[in-house]
Design brief:
single chain, mainly alpha, Four Helix Bundle (Hemerythrin (Met), subunit A), three-stranded antiparallel β-sheet, 10 helices
Length: 232
């Protein structure tokens, strides 16, 4: 009789990953505003971690596009410019419309149940009037559709910009005060995918991202009034 197989040890999340998680959420919830300087020595004292650990966390956030590193000057929290918003909404439209189409083609009853559960989380967040929870549920729903597409390269490309997309969703929802409309847009998308209507799912996903034009125009107006705000 063979002996019991020994499983590899499950290691806890590294300290730099945990630090990155905390700083990321502070950026996304607005605690750390765009332009805020992130000094290694201050963060190391605050988290009671080494500067090397904080440096690694900031490098990860830089890769995600949430932090900007300046040589010999340190890091600052990245802001969302009108150009950033335009690039993100056009990229989202391409990736998410393809994902919606592919998901609709191959969705199973169990997957449809999971997608509707994600929609219900958005509904509950909207009913509570919690903008932060709406943003989280909004992103989670779109991420679920990306996963349902079963397209590895699409998923990899989405992952590269997903934290920037979270920031984009928060910014977009902030100037779109109608929570019921946000829910209804997502309900139409989910219904099209779950019914297997690939053409409608693709079009609804594209139309959903057209709202990005409003955010671009909003940011352009801010930049016109404050031309130095988004300069490096």
């Amino acid at each position: 009789m063979k002996g019991k197989q020994t499983q590899p040890a499950i290691l806890p999340r590294s300290l730099d990953v945990q630090a990155a998680d905390v700083i990321r959420e502070q950026i996304l919830n607005g605690t750390l505003a765009p332009g805020t300087r992130l000094l290694e020595i201050n963060l190391a004292e605050e988290f009671n971690l080494s500067r090397a650990t904080i440096r690694s966390a900031l490098q990860q956030l830089t890769y995600e596009g949430l932090v900007i590193q300046f040589p010999y000057k340190g890091c600052t929290v990245s802001g969302l410019s009108s150009q950033d918003a335009w690039e993100l909404y056009t990229l989202r439209s391409a990736l998410e419309s393809l994902a919606a189409k592919l998901a609709a083609v191959a969705i199973t009853p169990s997957q449809a149940k999971e997608l509707n559960a994600a929609l219900q989380q958005l509904v509950k967040a909207a009913e509570k009037g919690s903008w932060s929870e709406v943003a989280d549920a909004d992103f989670a729903l779109h991420k679920a559709i990306i996963q349902l597409a079963a397209h590895r390269r699409l998923q990899e490309q989405y992952k590269i910009v997903e934290q920037q997309i979270r920031l984009y969703i928060i910014s977009s929802n902030a100037i779109h005060p109608d929570l019921d409309d946000i829910v209804e847009q997502h309900r139409k998308l989910v219904n099209a995918i779950c019914s297997g209507d690939a053409s409608s799912a693709e079009q609804i996903a594209q139309d959903h991202n057209i709202d990005g034009k409003t955010l671009v125009e909003h940011l352009q107006a801010i930049e016109k009034q404050n031309p130095d705000q988004f300069k490096s």
